[in-house]
Write a structure and sequence with these properties.
alpha/beta; TIM Barrel; eight-stranded parallel sheet; globular; magnesium ion binding
Length: 282
């Protein structure tokens, strides 16, 4: 596998700021698909050897992903839950690959599971804990505080299966808030929301606005064609940037009226401009 110069020139934000996390199935003989995913619009590509493959294909898919990571490819990998035998198999094959950028741990439910995963990886390998159950949501702060936890993400589909909750934003406000607050309390970047299904393109903008309103700064993505919309909507808009600048100018004016709202208002405006600069959209 050879990474083309065009792919190498693409500038992507650090994973702590990544807006789109593309789940690319780790298909057997999938090297061309992996190359295409890396050349696409997503900030982070996650080769999926968990739910992205039927069980019968997992051994061959795991090997294909490992071979790609050993021969010049670079990506994250979503691995199986600690409670499955496949977790150990995934790590045995993938942990030493030089192209492994990070691991997304499926169905995380405790800090111990994050620690056990990190212990089998090279030092410093970031682990995103994918929380997909009621127990995971209620353990979110402990998970976020695990030393190896780099960020947390919301697996909406499995969470709904576990709890019976609908996908309506009002019904999922509580778990989203738990993840946002846990991330902040643990000093992590804001969490990554779940994806919009491939066959629901019309819902993509609204779903992304809900995630942003909830305080999330990334989304899982199942289709690269969704990535640009998510990136645009999760980045500060020109209107937001202009409003932040006007706010700071107003607060800095000699005649500015200060009350208890001035500090938080300034901090929010500065945060918008800081994020815009880091994402290179200013």
């Amino acid at each position: 596998m050879t990474v083309s110069p065009a792919v190498e020139r693409i500038r992507r934000p650090h994973w702590s700021l990544a807006r789109t996390w593309l789940l690319q199935p780790g298909l057997p003989a999938g090297a061309d698909a992996f190359d295409a995913a890396v050349a696409g619009n997503a900030d982070v590509v996650v080769l999926d050897v968990e739910d992205g493959l039927p069980d019968v294909q997992k051994p061959a898919g795991r090997q294909a992903v490992a071979e790609w990571l050993y021969t010049g490819g670079r990506a994250w990998v979503r691995i199986s839950s600690v409670t499955t035998a496949a977790w150990r198999d995934d790590l045995d094959v993938l942990a030493g690959a030089p192209g492994l950028a990070g691991v997304m741990l499926a169905k995380a439910e405790s800090a111990d599971q994050v620690a056990a995963t990190a212990a089998r990886l090279p030092d410093g390998t970031p682990v995103v804990a994918l929380i997909e159950s009621a127990l995971g949501i209620e353990s979110a702060l402990d998970i976020a505080r695990a030393p190896a936890c780099a960020r947390i993400a919301f697996g909406i589909g499995d969470f709904r299966r576990d709890t019976g909750m609908s996908g309506e934003p009002a019904m999922l406000a509580y778990p989203r808030a738990r993840l946002v607050i846990a991330s902040r309390a643990a000093g992590l970047p804001a969490p990554i929301d779940g994806p919009t299904l491939r066959n629901r393109n019309a819902e993509l903008p609204g779903d992304t606005v809900v995630a942003k309103s909830a305080g999330m700064t990334g989304r899982l993505c199942l289709d690269d064609s969704h990535a640009q919309t998510i990136n645009d909507l999760l980045s500060p808009s020109p209107l937001e940037i202009d409003e932040a600048r006007r706010t700071l100018a107003r607060l800095d004016a000699p005649s500015a009226h200060y009350d208890g709202s001035a500090g938080p208002t300034r901090a929010r405006a500065e945060a918008v401009l800081d994020l815009a600069a880091k994402l290179d959209v200013i």
